Amino acid sequence: FEGIDRLWDDEYEVYGLRLQGDKLDSRLDSATFSLVDAFVAYDELESLSERTLDRIESHVETALADLYRETDAVAGLVRFEDDWWRVAEQDDPKIWSLSTAWGANAAATLAVLLDDYGRPKEADRFLEEATELYDLLGPDGPFTTEGGYLTEQVFDDGDADSAAPLGWSHAMRLHATALLAEYDALPAPKPAP
């Protein structure tokens, strides 16, 4: 746990992706949302310091903001900064259902952690972010196919790409559902047309 400090970027105020020799790769990656679960697990053994809470809060806040993209047809989180895999003709990285679900889970989990540490204002902010991301994964969201399955990723024009259904995204959405239900924060259902 103490080793995670080596990945902290004081200027960007995020945890870096990895060390390459002595050089810190500070690109944001949605996989780093898993740090929230790691910190929660550590908290079960030993209390987290205020500095650690400040850092994980800053990291998640920045990652949610900087990985977020929105077009006329789709909104959500990209996998990582500068992700040019299979972008075809578009100029920006594609938006991924898994990254969006991971962000929703991290925000909800962090909200509970911050609330436990007497930070209700911050907790409410992350809970709101979690519900907004969760809503994108719903039946009317941009990742859902006509068959009701979440697709892996979406082009800026709304066209689905790659695997559908993607089991991992469905599992992460179910996890987010349980977290938000426990916190009584599930978004209100949309009225039928």
TL;DR of this structure?
The protein is α+β, with helices and mostly antiparallel strands. Helices cover 41% and strands 12% of the residues.
Terminus-to-terminus distance: 50 Å
Please count the beta strands (DSSP E, at least 2 residues each).
Answer: 9
| Coarse morphology | globular
DSSP helix fraction:
40-55%
Largest sheet: 5 strands, antiparallel
What features would you describe in this structure?
This protein is α+β, with helices and mostly antiparallel strands and 193 residues long. 41% of the residues lie in helices and 12% in strands. The chain is built from five helices and nine strands. The protein has helices spanning 34-43, 50-66, 97-116, 120-136, 167-182; strands at residues 8-9, 14-15, 18-20, 23-25, 68-70, 75-78, 95-96, 153-154, 160-161. The chain has a five-stranded antiparallel β-sheet. A hairpin with a 2-residue loop joins strand 3 and strand 4. Helix 3 (97-116) packs parallel to helix 5. The longest helix has 20 residues, at 97-116. It is globular, with a radius of gyration of 17 Å. The model has no long low-confidence stretch (mean pLDDT 88).
Features:
5-stranded antiparallel beta sheet, alpha+beta, 5 helices
